Every structure is written in C-alpha cells, then in structure tokens.
Amino acid sequence: MENLKVSQEEKTEEKYGASIGTWFSLGIVLAVITATNLLLFWLYMARV
Amino acid sequence: MGTTLKQSWKEKADQALGASPEDATLSKTYLFVSFITLLIGGVLGLIQGLNRAGILELPSWLNYYQVLTAHGILLILVFTALFTIGYFYAVLSHNLGGLLPKARKMAWIGFGLKVIGLIFVIVPIIMNEASVMFTFYPPLAAHPVFYFGLVLLVVGVWMCAFGAFIQVANWRKKNKGQHVPILSYFATGVFVLLFFSSIPVAIEVFMIIPWAIGWVETINVMLSRTLFWAFGHTLVNIWYLTAVSAWYVVVPKIIGGRRFSDTLTRVVIILLVILNIPGGFHHQIIDPGIAESVKFLHVFMSLAIGFPSLMTAYAMFAVFEKTARKKGGKGLFRWFNKLPWGDVRFLAPMVAMIAFIPGGAGGIAQSTNQLNQVAHNTLWVVGHFHLTLGTTAALTFFGISYWLVPYLSKRVLTPAINRLGVIQTIFWSAGMIFMAGAMHWVGLLGSPRRTSYTTYFDNATALSWDPYLIFLAVGGTLLMIGVLIQVYAVIHLMFFAPKGETEFPIAEEEDNASKTPYWTERWGMIIVIMLLVIAMGYVIPLVEMIVNAPPGSPPFRPW
C-alpha cells in the first residue's frame, strides 16, 4: 500500500513538470487581470 | 598595493561583522523616524476612516481635510521616502564595503533638510492653513511655508540621491569591469528615479510659491497638475522597485533558494527606470485640454510597466516552486506548503506580492480611458493605492524590518517577535481586505474620494454606501492594531532584543547561471534613453500647455 502511494506520487511528479505550478499561478494572475477589466467594462457599458 | 590590500580586508571585515556603527546609526535613524511617522500617520488614518464612515465626529478645531492631508503626506511622502533611503543606504554600506564619509555626510544633511521640511509642511496643516491634500497641486492654495517645506524635502532627497551616486561611482571606479552588486543596482535605479522624478515637482513648487505668496495672481493649473503627476506616478514605482528589490534578492535567501536570472532582474530594473515617468498622464486621463493622442501615448507607457511586473510575477513563482520542489514539495499546489509560512520575513512580503495581483489588475484597468471613467475620483482609487502602497509596498517594508533592524542594531529576531510579526501580518491583511475591499466596491457604487462623510440630504444612493463604509471603519481599526504591533516590533528589535549577529540575507545566483551582459552597467546610456522617452512623452504636451495656456486660476481655499 505504502509502495503504491509512493509510485503514485512519482507519477504525479512526472505529470506536473517542474514549472507547472509557476504557469498555473501566472494563469491566476492573468485571470484576476481579465476579471477586473471585464467587471469595469461591464459597468462602463451599463452606464453609457 | 598595501592600501588596496588593507581596503580589501576592511571590506571583508565590514561584511563579516555587519554594518559599521556610523552607517548603522544613519540607517537606524532613518528607519526609526520612518516608523514613528507610520504611527502618527496610522492614528490619523484611523480618525479619518471612522469619520468617513460617519461613526466619529471630529472636534471643531480639526476637520476631515486636515487629517486627510496630514495622513497622506506623512505616509505617502515621508514614511516611504525615509524607509527607502534608510534601507538602501544600509544596502550600499553592506554591498560596497561601507559608506564613504562624503556619502554618509550627504545622507545626514538630507535627513536634516527632510526633518526641517517636514516641520514646515506639518505646522501649516495643523494650523488649518494647508488642507490641500498630499497631491497639493493648484488651484487649492496652502500657506507659503507649506511649499517652502516641500522644497526642503525635495532638496533633502536630492542630497541622498547624490550621496548614493557618489558611493556607487566610487565602487565602480575601484572595481572596473565588475557588475554592481544586485541590491546596489536596485538602489541606483531607485535613486535615479527619485532624482529625475522630483525635478518636475520642484519646478511645480517653484511655480506655486510666488502664486501662494501673492506675487502673481494666477497659475496654469493644467501645467502644475501635469508636473505633479510626472512625479506622483513615478513615486508609486519607486515604492514598487524598492519592494521588488527584496522580492528578487532577499526572499529567495529566506526560503532557502537561489535568485532568479541576474540578467532578467537587471532588465526589469532598467525597464522600470526607462518606462516610468511618461506614464504620469494616466492620472489625468479624464482631464480636459489634453489631446487624445497624448493620453494614448501615456496609457501605452503606463501599461508598459505591466510588462516588467509580469516578468517579476513569473520569476517569483518560479523561485518559489523550484525551492519548494527541492525541499520535497509535490503536486500542482501542495509545494506551497513547503514554503516557510511561519517566518514573518517571508510571510509579509509574500502577502505583499499576493496583494499586488488585484492591485496591479486594478491599476491596469484604471489606466484605460473608458474603464477609468467608472472608477475615476471614487473611493475605488483610494482602495487601489491602499492595496499597492498600503499593502504591497508597506508589508514588504515591514518584512524587511524584521531582519534589517536587528542587523543594524546587532541584535537578533527572537521567536516571540517573529510570532508577533506573523500576527501583525494577519491583522494587516484582514484590515486591508475589509478596508480596501470596501473602498473598491463602494467606489464602483459611486462614493467619491476626497470628500468627507455626507448623505447628500439623505439621498438614497448615498445612504446605500453606509454599510460598506462600516467595513471601511472595521478595516481601519484592524490596521491601527497592525500599526501598533509593527512599531512595537521595530522599537523592540532596535533597542531591546537580545544582542547577536543577524545576517543580511542576499541570495546567490544559480550554479549554472549565465553571465550577465555588461551593457546592463551602462547607466549613462540607460539615463539617455530614459530622458528621450520622457521627452517623447512630455515635450509636445508641455509646450502646448505653455504656448496655448488656458486662463490662469487664482488661489482657492475652500476649507
């Protein structure tokens, strides 16, 4: 059981490369930027 | 030969034993006054927040705009400037083998000028003669003494900038062909920006003084505002660059990692220096009388700053992930658990970085003409700079203080003070979520900034803002607790913590790091490009504003 857990973790490590967390975190940054722009754009269009 | 060897031993001894007592005293003085300013400015901020929320009525001898002006000037201009100068002079001393007597003297003269200038600025505010807010541009007119104080503040900053330039130039002369150590490189960038951005504001103040005294009847408001924002916009990025210096160099060391590419770090500094000043017009994006093409250019320049910021975001996440994975971190997100969340020297700047995600996003949105119209002159803007300055810059400064102050005082950060620092960071973060969050939202609902509490004769829209303003007050109270803890921690670390040696944390480069190209050291070329970019952004609009000047404005004192 313990061995299985270890091999699963190794597999996960292979699946997520060393910089996948970095790109995912940057994705969150870009999502926040996009969401902020969309919120203000929606308010702008609603008030024009 | 003998002198060089002696010098080299002195440099090594200084680096091993910490800052020389004279250099340490200089930086500690700057930091001490900086945090006292934070305390006073924080108290004023709490009073202002409670009053703005309609909870606290001010006594007849004190009005909202006095408090607003003093809070802004103390925290935005004085706290940040004193901290930045104290921090970077400690950097120059540590990195470059101790301060030259001339540089140290100039920093002390600069300190004296700034203190006298601050007194000149504050006294008219206390006397209710200068409620012109921290932006102080016409047509609001303060007592002339207020502007004399501003002149002294600017000259004080120039003294420190030239002291730093002399220090760096001296090191470069003795170390030909070598790269200036990275933190001193940051210091150079910051002082270049401080010097060049304070030139337009100095011109503005010299325009205002004869007008405030009454020697001239009117003033060109548009020109004054433009000169102010060339400085004001850059000031934001001076705080940012100061914070970023710790993110790139100090934080990796604290988490047990290596620094990201040295070349990329230096390119980020160069880009922030070159692209910065011409972004000023995005603060005037709704102003009449400025051509659309000029606004477009400045919006482009403002958004260009986002490029090095995204490079920084990538670099930071990459350092965190690489370090955490080396420590056994796994999965898509679980590696975050390997970061030292219980260490305030990491936690505070990390929260600062996280806050910069919505802070930067808000900045990008505000720089866009149409989107700016949704948030312009509302409390959204106040919320925005409480996220950027109040959280991103301030929390990084707090994080720096937990190693810099004990390093300078030859004391150590105890587990108890570290725990207190973690609690302080939690209070600060919670306070900002409440306060800046409420400000952003109520701003979108139309609540104006730079306006004391009013219901506009019980107007329904204005009354709908009240619940959010209560959150603002709650946040302000939590932040005040954060200020008290922070000031206590700094004083404890400066005077009462156990004696011992504290390391100045500077992360090494990766073993296989590529060589940084030497063109990054050509500051003459960088400054010429910066001046060309400034000329591109400002010559045509300034000539236009002077040649086709609108009718001037007399002084206004509505308070």
UniProtKB/TrEMBL annotation, chain A:
Protein name (database record): Cytochrome c oxidase subunit 2A
UniProt keyword list: Membrane, Transmembrane, Transmembrane helix
Organism lineage string: Bacteria, Bacillati, Bacillota, Bacilli, Bacillales
Transmembrane regions listed in the UniProt entry: 20-44
Membrane found in the keyword field: yes
Domain of life: Bacteria
Record bears the keyword Membrane: yes
Automatic annotation (TrEMBL), chain B:
Regions that span the bilayer: 30-50, 70-94, 106-126, 146-170, 182-215, 227-251, 263-281, 296-320, 344-365, 385-405, 426-448, 468-491, 523-543
One Pfam family named in its UniProt record: COX1
InterPro entries membership: Cyt_c_oxase-like_su1_dom, Cyt_C_Oxase_1
Domain Cytochrome oxidase subunit I profile: 3-497
Superkingdom of origin: Bacteria
Keyword Iron-sulfur: no
Native source organism of the sequence: Evansella tamaricis
Keywords: Electron transport, Membrane, Respiratory chain, Transmembrane, Transmembrane helix, Transport
Name under which the protein is recorded: Cbb3-type cytochrome c oxidase subunit I
